[in-house]
Design goal:
Layout: H1 7-16, E1 20-22, E2 29-31, H2 33-50, E3 56-57, E4 63-65, H3 66-72, H4 74-77, E5 84-87, H5 92-104, E6 113-119, H6 128-131, E7 133-134, E8 140-149, E9 162-172, H7 174-194, E10 200-203, H8 210-222, E11 226-231, E12 240-249, H9 251-255, E13 258-259, E14 267-274, H10 275-286, H11 295-300
Parallel strand pairs: 3-8, 7-13
Antiparallel strand pairs: 1-2, 4-6, 5-6, 8-9, 9-14, 10-11, 11-12, 12-14
Helix pairs in contact: 2-10
């Protein structure tokens, strides 16, 4: 039986076992060696499943071209989650003012200016500009692990401001994209269940902002454009999403001028494993000492 717990008590146990390291900011923490070892092993298990798919390997920094970010329309739906990068580019006098304000504990944000980058709000966003143009027959498939930023500070350890996502992005014709998504939904469920996690899939929606956002969320659920694989971490009543599947249809194909080999606007979909959340689900389900986990689970994570 999966016992309910509070976010704070689970956080405290993770700290007690040196799995995470407090840094003084809600939604941010360091990762200990054991935590990282489990994460690496899970990442390797995903790679073994994907090895014959022929995906292109890519790696991007945790920052994104601000023009790409603005073009993506993220701010239309999720302004509350975005993180812009500002920096100082002033004079000597302004620098002196900046130092004085910091030392005196006064606001200093007006002495900085917006830069040409933002913190990446989604692991898939850097990929779409590289798809611009006409794709080869069969479309494109990309595999990556990227850092993502979401401004939603919380004491609950599963809700992080900065986290890693093992992401796959598929672009092509509708039948190719939907078939790929459905295949990976089964793969994801199978992998997580092989690790002893009581995973199940549900139709879901994104945290759209405001009154209009509630209508968008309802439409997204109704059209089944988003699925999540959920696992109880804090409670059975409010399980946590550890894997997400998003079907964008032609949204990014139109924005970034991506076409299939027959000239049609390409459709896209992505799936992402929330790496830290999967690791936390394993610790909550099997205990805080991996050497004591069931042998079947350790075998899947052996590498």
């Amino acid at each position: 039986m999966h016992s309910a717990t509070t976010g704070q008590s689970f956080y405290d146990r993770l700290v007690e076992h040196k799995l995470i390291i407090p840094v003084g900011v809600p939604g941010a923490f360091g990762r200990g060696a054991v935590f990282e070892d489990v994460l690496r092993r899970f990442d390797a298990a995903v790679s073994r499943i994907a090895k014959d798919d022929g995906a292109e390997q890519m790696l991007f920094p945790p920052i994104l071209d601000r023009k790409v970010f603005e073009k993506s329309e993220f701010l239309d739906s999720f302004p509350q989650l975005a993180g812009s990068v500002f920096s100082f580019a002033g004079t000597d006098e302004q620098h002196a003012e900046l130092r004085d304000r910091v030392r005196e504990g006064r606001p200093w944000s007006d002495l900085q200016a917006m830069t040409g980058v933002v913190l990446s709000p989604a692991a898939c966003y850097p990929v779409y500009p590289s798809f611009t143009g006409t794709m080869p027959e069969g479309g494109r498939l990309v595999d990556m692990q990227n850092w993502v930023f979401r401004h939603e500070p919380s004491p609950e350890p599963t809700r992080m401001q900065a986290f890693r996502v093992r992401e796959f992005v598929r672009a092509g014709t509708p039948d190719v994209v939907v078939r790929w998504r459905d295949t990976w939904l089964e793969r994801g469920l199978s992998l997580l269940r092989s690790l002893g996690l009581p995973a199940r899939s549900v139709a879901a929606s994104d945290p759209f902002f405001g009154r209009g956002g509630r209508m968008l969320a309802a439409s997204q659920r109704e059209q089944e454009l988003k699925f999540e694989v959920i696992v109880p971490i804090l409670s059975e009543e409010a399980p946590t999403a550890v894997c997400s599947f998003n079907y964008h249809r032609e949204h990014f194909g139109k924005i970034f001028d991506i076409h299939t080999s027959d000239g049609e606007v390409a459709q896209t979909a992505c799936l992402g494993f929330g790496m830290e959340r999967v690791v936390m689900a394993l610790f909550k389900t099997h205990g805080f000492v991996p050497a004591e986990w069931p042998s079947a689970v350790r075998e899947v994570l052996a590498s």
